[in-house]
Amino acid sequence: MRQEWFDDARFGMFVHFGLYSGAARHEWVQNYERLTDEEYRPYFDNFDPDLFDAAALAKTAKETGMGYVVLTTKHHDGFCLWDSKLTDFTSVTAVGRDLVREYVDALRAEGIRVGLYHSVIDWHHPDFTVDWNHPRRDDENAHALNEGRDMARYREYLHGQVRELLTEYGDIDYLFFDFTYPESKDGWEGKGPQDWDAEALLALCRELQPEMLVNDRLGIPADFVTPEQYQPTAPIVRDGVPLVWEACQTLNGSWGYHRDNTDQKSPVLLVQMLVDSVSMGGNMLLNIGPDGRGAIAPRDAATLAEIGEWMRLHDRAVIGAGHAPFTPPREGVYTLRGDRLYLSLFSWPLGFVHLPGLAGKVSYARLLNDGSWLRTSVSDPDQQADLMTPAGEAEGTLTVHLPVRRPDVLMPVIELRLTGE
Ligand code: GLC
């Protein structure tokens, strides 16, 4: 199965890096501020990724428990981080560095799966037509800008660049295309699968990298779907078939480095989101936006370090785990890995956690962080719940006895060994 490694890994790192990192105010800055090419040019002329250290990036991903990384090869601004022969708008012409090469080499050295992100949108390319998403949409006579622009030529460029990426850099495990917006708006057309010739582009991917996973953002179905900046609340099913899915999430709402944005998610929230995804059979791709020099921002490094410390003790509740066919108690979520059921506790109850339907199904219970045994019992469902010991739980409920003090970890996990009956 093509996506076996992906299902197994569950946790990946997204890396958004480009000219917008130096602008430091969101990767959509060119669009938000309607910047012309000339106005955006200083970020190219002053691009200086002296602290972009692919080996450190790969090491950080590994220490955070992430099994794959996905780097922006080109974002919507059109700037390329590899040695494309089809444009001079690249990191090689800017600073003489093929950052994609550095990146794939570093990941392979750490044994981490290699993912690429590639924007099918391109605000720099002269043939890419202006539409409601384009930085020039509000220019005077903006519609006239499309005279002479030819999407057929752009398509050739797009396919040519994807070919470069999929032939010059060895085995690529994963490709995240971004994105399709077929709806019309504000007097403009959008762009749909036909604008990319999505079928042919996907066929090219299959031909050049048959094992590679491809996402759904060419506007046609492929290998997995990509909920963005929200958490699904159930396994994702289409026409009765469960889909492979991956929630992509930011640390602060912006994908590219955004210096003044302090909306940083807490490490606790992030590990909850991670196990929540796994509990519904999905993955989480957590983004970092390296700063203008290419370094991982200290606040991001600190967040990842905390997640990594949690993963060090609890990764078996995530990696190789998936959806469990039991209804969890109100305090948390279940993930299942072989004969081990993991209960990640979002809140810490007093003394006991009651697990409906698990009486007789668990042979051993322990806290995962320190391996300490937990007493279990089954209370009499017919007894009143107003006496001095737990009682009145539904038939078949297993009660796990907990210490009063919550373990000092981001999120405690109880490991339950199932009897298999
Ligand atoms: C969106 C945004 C983009 C980001 C991507 C990540 O489509 O356009 O900036 O790269 O999501 O999923």
UniProtKB/TrEMBL annotation:
EC top class named in words: hydrolase
Tagged with keyword Hydrolase: yes
Domain Glycoside hydrolase family 29 N-terminal: 3-314
Keyword tags: Glycosidase, Hydrolase, Signal
Database matches in InterPro entries: FUC_metazoa-typ, GH, Glyco_hydro_29, Glyco_hydro_29_N
Pfam families: Alpha_L_fucos
Record-listed E.C. numbers: 3.2.1.51
Task performed by this protein: Alpha-L-fucosidase is responsible for hydrolyzing the alpha-1,6-linked fucose joined to the reducing-end N-acetylglucosamine of the carbohydrate moieties of glycoproteins.
Family under the similarity heading: Belongs to the glycosyl hydrolase 29 family.
The name this protein goes by in its record: alpha-L-fucosidase
Organism of this sequence: Microbacterium paraoxydans
Organism taxonomic ancestry: Bacteria, Bacillati, Actinomycetota, Actinomycetes, Micrococcales
